[in-house]
Structures are given as structure tokens and as C-alpha cells.
Amino acid sequence: MARIDRRLDVSLDEPTLVEGFPGVGLVGKIVVDHLIEELGMEHYANVHCEGIPPVTTYQPDSSELVTPVRLYVDAERDLLALQSDVPINPRAATAFADCVTEWFNAESVLPIYISGLPRQTEAEQPALYGVGAGEGTGRLVDAGIDTPDEMGIVSGPTGALLAHAVDHETTAVGVVVESDPQFPDPDAAKAVIERAIEPIAGIEVDTGDLTDKAAEIEQAREQLLKRMQQASEESSRAEPIRMYQ
């Protein structure tokens, strides 16, 4: 049965929620994982919804099993984070959206949904813009977040959650950021936190660790590409030879 099982009894006043499903560049997941660790957020609730794969998660330094999708809370900052260890099947995304947004509406939650847009160029700073439903567009204006400069579509569980807000005329914010289509992208996650989460939620978050991770991932990527090139050069292969070539 679909439900949100609370583990903590805390008081929240129209909290902001940040969604962290795996996606392009793993941006949403990196953002949420960083918020939980950096702010010391507490495990607030287990999420039981249709569409979540029937698996369970165990964590370091604990023998307690938990659901793969969970809510974390920072009561002082009126902040919630939706952490997911698994992707949601697109065919089940609508059912999942029905489950969680019913709870969001009952608790007067402002959800911020994050989507990575495959980056086409190596710009110094990833492009970021906001979309919204209901009063979400006003929150984007107040936060000074740019509007899209081209037509686009948001798919997957994040798209289903935003579609649910449009269909039911509720408030939601979507943040779209250019990100690496092949590797985890801490730079894009840093941009989301600094240019979207902080102004919308009215909080400050140290993102220094994300800069360090970006450098580590870039170094690992270069090493991987080098190894792949070496393997290609050393592998035997056949090539066609055309006459008069």
C-alpha cells in the first residue's frame, strides 16, 4: 500500500523539498547526497510507493534495513530531501508521482525537481534555467533564475512529477542544468545548489567538496579515455582497403 512512514516527529512550516533521482550526470542524486551529508539531515521517513523496485537498502554503521527511496529532514531550515538509491521505471513514474505528491500537497511542501540536460559544449559554467507550475514560476522569478532559451521536454520520474503538478494545478519548481551525459557531474550539481536551491530555499550550503570531486572525476575520466585509446591501438582489427585509396 502506498504510504509515507515517518520515523521522526518534527514540526515543519511549508518546507522546501529537493528531489534526487538518478538522471543525466547524476545531478539530482549528487545534489541530494551532498545536502544530506553537509547539513547533517536526519532520516525522516521511508517511502512506500508503486513504481519503486522491490529491493531494500542497508547503510554503513547500521544493521537496519530501509527503503531505497527515503525522505531526510533539516527542521531548522524547513528543508526536506528525497533520496533515491534506485531509478524509477518510466512506465511506473505516474503512479509514483500520484503517491508522493498527495503527501507533498497535504504537508504544503514546495518541491524542487532536478533534471540534467546533456551538455553540447564545454562552457566554463553550465547553463541553468527554471520551469514551474502554479506559484512555482513566481518563486523562480524571485530567485532570479533564467527562463529556457529553447523548447524542451522533461521525461522520466522527474517529468512525471512535473506533469502531475501541471495536471492537478499544484505548485512545483523544475531546475534544468547542462550536465555531462556520460559521467557524474559535480560541477552541474554545484550550480544547482548555488544558483537554484540556495535562493529558493533561503539557505547557504558549502559546496567546496563538490569542486574537489569534479577535479577527481575529470582526472578519472582522462585516465579512462587514455586506457580506452591504448586498448584500441593495441587490439588487432581488420579494416577495408578500397581500390585507388
UniProtKB/TrEMBL annotation:
Superkingdom of source: Archaea
The entry's keywords: Proteasome
Pfam families for this protein: PAC2
Basic and acidic residues bias: start-end ranges: 234-245
Span list, region Disordered: 225-245
Matching InterPro entries: Proteasome_assmbl_chaperone_2 (IPR019151), PSMG2_sf (IPR038389)
GO CC annotations, alphabetized: proteasome complex
Cross-referenced PANTHER family: 3-ISOPROPYLMALATE DEHYDRATASE, 3-ISOPROPYLMALATE DEHYDRATASE-RELATED
Protein name in the entry: Proteasome assembly chaperone family protein
Originating species: Halonotius roseus
Taxonomy of the source species: Archaea, Methanobacteriati, Methanobacteriota, Stenosarchaea group, Halobacteria
